[in-house]
Amino acid sequence: MIDSLIRRTSVLTVEQVASQLRVSRSLVYSLIEAGKLKCHRIGIGRGTIRLSQADLESFLRNCRRDNAAVSTGAKSDEQ
Question: How many CB atoms lie within 10 A of CB 49?
Fold first, then answer.
């Protein structure tokens, strides 16, 4: 059972997630704390944080914006 779980679930550390996203570890921790990025806490107390590849992919899908939804802060020429 454990072997099949490991094969089905790719488990990542905070550092690995930060590296994949090219962001800081502190941003990954902030996303977890804000409830935007799901994680697993393994161990006693607060535990060691691990993130599944599936949860990371879900987070990225939810972050995706189309061009119309992205605000650049530039003013439009039309008024």
Answer: 17
Q: What is the largest CA-CA distance in the chain?
A: 63
Instruction: Give the tokens for residue 76.
Output: 């439009």
Contacts 24+ apart (CB under 8 A), 37-43: 40/11
Could you report the per-residue pLDDT of 65-78, keeping only the tens digit for each? Answer: 887 655 666 665 55
CA 13, 31, 60 angle in degrees (round to 5)?
80
Q: Which pair of tokens denotes residue 35?
A: 């409830």
pLDDT in tens, 30-57: 999 999 999 999 999 888 999 999 999 9
Alpha helix (H) ranges present in 34-78? 53-63
Compute the C-alpha angle 28/35/2, nearest 5°: 80
